[in-house]
Design goal:
The protein contains four helices and no strands. With 83 residues, it is mainly alpha-helical.
Length: 83
């Protein structure tokens, strides 16, 4: 019984320790999709898709922030003062 508990503890400990590393690594497909989403910016920087995917898989790729839609400015409020 102790041997079974020891084996289970070792397996559980090994899986917990390896989980963060596996969770951070992206798939090649996910990295390619990121590169294509920011294709113009990456090409302007001279970054090829192959180089980006390699950096992305290693966890060192820097992604450009997603473009944001322009926000409409609210018109200045007008106050009516009655005298």
């Amino acid at each position: 019984m102790r041997a079974l508990a020891l084996v289970c503890s070792i397996v559980l400990g090994a899986s917990v320790l390896s989980f963060p590393a596996a969770a951070q690594q992206k798939t090649v497909k996910a990295c390619q999709e990121e590169w294509r989403a920011n294709k113009a910016a990456n090409q302007a920087k001279g970054v090829t898709e192959k180089a980006y995917v390699a950096q992305c898989r290693a966890g060192t790729a820097t992604t450009a922030p997603a473009p944001t839609a322009p926000t409409a400015t609210a018109p200045a409020s007008t106050r009516v003062i009655c005298v």
